[in-house]
Amino acid sequence: MAQRRSATAAGSTDGTPPCVKKKEGRLYTGSLDNEEYDAFKKWLKKQRKENSRTLTVDAKLDIVAVQAYFRHEKFVNANKSGRPKQYRFTALAKNVLQRSTDVCQQAWKDYERAQAVSVADNDGPRGTKTTKFKRTEALRVKLQNWLYERTVKGNRTVAKDVLGFFCSSGVLPMYSDPTSKANALRAVQRYLESLGYERGQRGGCTTYMEKEEVLIKRDAYITQMIKARQQRRRIVYLDESYIHHHYRRHDESLYDPGDNRLLPKQKHKGRRFCFIAAIISSDPAVPEAERSEEHRAQLLPETLDIFEGGKKQSGKAQTKDYHGMFDSAYFERWMQTLLATLDARGIKNTIIVMDNAKYHKSLPADTPKQSWKKAAMVEACTARGLPVSDTDTRALLWARLRDHIAQTVKPVVVQMAEDAGHEVLWTPPHYSDLQPIEIVWANVKGDVGRQYNYDTTFKDVRQRLDEAFATLTPKTVEGCIAKANARLDELYRQITSLDEVDEEAIDDGVFDDEQCDDDDENMEEVDVVNEDKDKDSDEDSDEDDDEGEHEDED
């Protein structure tokens, strides 16, 4: 009895239904009066607002099951004597489940039409809001080429110009309403920001350009890849990816626009398989006519690892970003497999290309960390021959160690590769089209997605994924690498062309040291103004928080 009462007391905290309470010294589980039932309905409505607003498959199954139950009750009672009972199925389901009439009615209609249940579509208040335009890789490349052409011609480019380009090319409609146009402009600005573009100076005109650090990484990668091809070195590309249970590729499937019986698009993604692998380019030292199977571009099957996301990595829960299913320890073990495979095949002196994932760049375990105490930092500086003074603060010690680490300490996988006679190269941010293995993933996932239907099980997905990798031909891999190399050559031509434009601008006196200093001062003034605005907005935000007037994020 004491346990029962303590559970009741615990149930009085936030999140407990108001109808579950102590009444006259005992747990109240009897009938509910009108006031108590109204309080429960308000609580239930509040709980649903705090949780995801998208109906899951299980939620829609509950709605359909309740309606099916009442329809069966009507059949059972039809043969009984007396006046037949009247049933309002949607209203009954609404009252039992406390859902809206439209939701209950639409769920049954969908089931009657398709004899299956899918979750709510993305459109509308019960689903995820869609963007104003699809942010595809093709659009990013299209924008990049258009911006390059304007830069070569010396045109100034701002977000309004990008909006006009999107409207004229059919990405967005032509807007006549000022409000709609302003909303579209904001969407374009968010898109440019997500790509890493920022306002900058080129040729004396304010325009949109990529961040300098991204440009430096891009140029370094392109020049190193061009050099590697000139040296006739083989290149290994590695990457991780995933595929969901309900992933499908039906973009080219036939349908009748006038047939309203079609099943709504399945949005529930389900569980997922994560996988990692490496591909290798053909051997340029061997003439194409003389190349055997081992000299051709291909997937390295020994490096392929497929596992269910959320189950393999020490019971780690499935994260929103599939990269969370990998860690440095796993990747270092996988890297050993890759290096052993290359050694067994007699492949030496390769370039190993990978992206900038955090677990790719993990440092040795004994590397000093910012979280260390001051005494440990002093000891680390002394061990590495760095100057130490009694007056040094912890921040100064860490700054000294951080610079030393950046200059002398290599990531674990980089050291592993160099010890085996290979070289690691990092792909630049926002340039996934330079990674041919991304195109390989698209081919593999496309093969799996085109076979999908509503009867596909998770086991079927694994079987089809294995088959897609097994049937991946060297010709397909070679085509993916050739496509990425064509993009690489195109970017290299653009870089050299922009260098020529800058050289001409310098000769014409467009770039002047004093002008550049003035521009820097102006930019600093703008930064100060922006900081003041940020402070004002932060103060306003704090006031709003004190008043409790902030809204939940969708």
Could you explain the architecture of this structure?
The chain is α+β, with helices and mostly antiparallel strands and 554 residues long. Among the domains are: 28-114, no CATH class; 236-253 and 262-367 and 409-486, 2-Layer Sandwich (Nucleotidyltransferase, domain 5). Helices cover 50% and strands 9% of the residues. The chain has helices at residues 2-10, 34-50, 57-78, 89-97, 101-114, 137-152, 159-168, 178-194, 212-230, 328-344, 374-383, 394-408, 412-419, 436-449, 458-470, 474-507, 513-547, and strands at residues 22-23, 26-27, 197-202, 205-210, 235-244, 272-280, 298-299, 305-308, 351-354, 423-426. Strands 5, 6, 7, 8, 9 and 10 form a six-stranded mixed sheet that branches. β3 (197-202) and β4 form a beta hairpin. α10 (328-344) packs parallel to α13 (412-419). The chain is globular and about 95 Å long.
